[in-house]
Amino acid sequence: MGNLVFDIAHLLAGLQVLVSFLLLYQDRLGALIRVFALQAVLLALSVAWQAYAQDAPHLYVTAAIALIFKVLIIPVALDRMVVRLGIHRQVETVVSVGPTMLAGIGLVGLSLVVMLRVTAGEADALAREDLAFALSVVLLGLLMMITRRNAVSQIIGFMSLENGLILAAAGARGMPLVVEISVAFSVLIAFIVIGSFVFRIRERFDTVDVDALERFRGGRG
Amino acid sequence: MSLVGLLLAIPSAAALVLALVPDWRLAARLNVGASAASFLMVLAVVRDPPAAGPLVLIDGLNSIVLVLNGFVVFTTSLFSARYVVHEAATGRLPPLRLRLYHALYQVLAFAMTLALVTNNLGVMWVAIEIATLTTVVVVGLYRTHEAIEAAWKYFMLGSVGIALALFGTILVYVAAQPVVGEGQDGMIWSVLVGKVAAFDPGLINLAFVFLLLGYGTKVGLTPLNAWLPDAHAEGPTPVSAVLSGLLLNVALYAVLRVKMLVAAHPDALAPGPLLMAAGLASLLLAGVMLYRRRDIKRLFAYSSIEHMGLMVFAFGIGGPIANFAGLLHMAMHALTKSAIYFAVGAAAQAKGSQRLSDITGLTQSHPALGWALVAAVAAIMGMPPAGVFMSEFLLVTSTFARMPALGVALAVSLLLGFGALAGKLAGIAFGTPSPDAGPVKVAYGPIFAHLALVFVAGVWLPPAIADALRQAAAALG
Which of A204, A216, A221 is nearest residue B295 as measured by Cβ atoms? Predict the structure, then answer.
């Protein structure tokens, strides 16, 4: 039984890292949003699995929040926004896929080396390897935020990063409920804030390309 | 309800009320009233601190920051009441946005107070996140291209910062859990600090790096400080004052709590050198960047980066004298920099521009305002007899005594910043006055109150305050 608990937790966490790579190179916004929803489904599953494995019913709440907000509400809202802006099929100029993927592989290697070595003495192997995967998802989300120029892609990068954080929090045995709820809640707030900004950006520029924002910098010190 | 409960209830209730008050004149007055009430409540709490519980911890360190915070929030609300009259009259802020502004001002005050009084690392993180999101909205309040860009940049970098800090917080819990047990105790700072010696050193090291990077972003440490000048320049000036004077301090306070935790572990890495390196790098970078500024609010934002770097450097060196200097500098910088922003806000309204080239000869066109600004900038440059001089002098001498090479680097960076500000100040204050955009009512009360405190503190520090600083410095290790 112990091994099965491990294997399933690792499978789900590892799949999330894989989906993070899909996010890295996906250059169509519509597809990007659906890939993000897929990652959120995996997150909900792994949090629910942790709830079962740790016998911690409050984690089911976290899983449900992930499912409702990140799989349903947010992707649907983003999708509608992208369609309304008419950039649904737009091909985004990602910096360059090859180097980005290599950098991603490097980051995953880094987080595995760092986390596994640092936590070598720890008894709780489940938390330990979960943390390594979670850190990978966090770093890949960060990489995505850096390499993308489009506001919607940056939002997705940020939310993917938050997925990694929730994965880490759920993996830590008995972590107080306060934190998980607040994370889920803050994601919601963050989304509202960003959403309102995106709409304001659109009012001003008729585009959500962050490069357009940079152009207004000219001449200021 | 306990006093601390009341302390948190005042700003949250005020935020609700202000969100419902349509008349901005009344809202500005209510804002002042609520801030004054909060300040009195802070004094009551600090006078008779409650025992440390699972939720609340009031000790020497946060008492100082709390009093400073309460005072500057109050004086800034006074300045803000004048400031919004001008912004409403010129139509830059319509009534609905002023309503949002006043409500968010109190939300920000609430979040900062919560971050300071809480004993729980998770709650502290939540409070700093609320403060960040609130300021993002306020920075974007003018909805100009620049304001939206600044808010977006602040939001992105700030989110990365708080995300890294949350990962660090989770790592602290993972390190604590085998020793402290499952549940809430693994997040309570006073429990952790007592048992940290038994934690896994590797995890604690990693947690420290994440927390330093995360909260360091909010402090404005190099290299993650690109948001800071934009956020200061594009938001309403009262918020620039609160950002510089207080929110940076709150983030620094979070760094200090984490530093105390790591320092209590015998086998963990020494936090000092990391803090010193980060502080010195910010100090140097800001010193160089100051020379090329063309926007007055941006100029003083870079000066804030410089001074935050100085404080982080002081706490990195550690020991009773450097810590004392760091804490004193925290207070002096907050008071001086917010006074500068009060004066700068009025000057920018009087001249109708934030560009340095449009603000010249202020001592001729607006003598009282001009000379107040000269006094405040001279103070921030570290001229005696201001309090900033005291703290910088203490820090430089104690650095030379312990690490002469670093002392030289510190002195050179300070001189860099000094030269830049002196050059810019000459242009702002003297020379041919630039044309005025219209009459402006200046709130002199807050400016002179802050300046008086700074100059008195440079000459004579009341024994009670000196004692409080000394005790907090000793606790910092």
Answer: A221
This complex has an ipTM of 0.85
DSSP A91-125: BP--S-HHHHHHHHHHHHHHHHHHHHHHTTT-S-H
Give the E-state strand segments of B225-306 in sequence order.
Answer: none
Give the other-Cβ count within 10 Å of A204's Cβ.
16
Based on the number of CB atoms within 10 Å of its own CB, is B430 exposed (0-12), middle (13-18) or buried (19 or more)? middle
How far apart, in whole angstroms, are the C-alpha atoms of residue A143 and residue A162? 13
DSSP secondary structure letters along B153-164: HHHHHHHHHHHH
CA distances from A113 to A117, A120, A205 (A): 6, 10, 44
Whole-number CA gyration radius for chain A: 18
Ramachandran area for residue A207 (φ above 0: left; ψ -120 to 50: alpha; else beta) = beta
Which DSSP string corresponds to B79-104?
A: HHHHHHHHHHHTTSS-HHHHHHHHHH
Which sign does the torsion angle of CA B15, B16, B19, B20 carry? negative
Q: Look at residue A197 in the predicted model and tell me its pLDDT.
A: 54
- What gap in Å lies between CA B399 and CA B389, rounded to an integer? 15
Tell me the pTM: 0.92
What are the chain A neighbours of B132 within 8 Å (beta carbons)?
Answer: none
List B residues 118-177 in contact with A (Cβ-Cβ < 8 A): 120, 122-123, 125-126, 129, 133, 136-137, 140, 143, 145-146, 148-149, 151-152, 155-156, 159-160, 163, 166-167, 169-171, 173-174, 177
Longest dimension (CA), chain A: 65
Instruction: Give SS3 for B462.
Output: coil
Tokens of A33: 């949003």
pLDDT digits 0-9 by tens, B215-256: 999 999 988 888 999 999 988 999 999 988 899 999 999 999
DSSP conformational letter for A215? G
Cα Rg of chain B, angstroms: 21
Distance (Å, rounded) from C-alpha B102 to C-alpha B108?
Answer: 10
Cis amide prior to B22 (ω within 30 degrees): no
Give the model confidence (pLDDT) of B324-373 as tens digits. 999 999 999 999 999 999 999 999 999 988 999 899 989 998 999 999 99
Cβ atoms A136, A112 nearer than 8 A: yes
d(CA B382, CA B270): 30
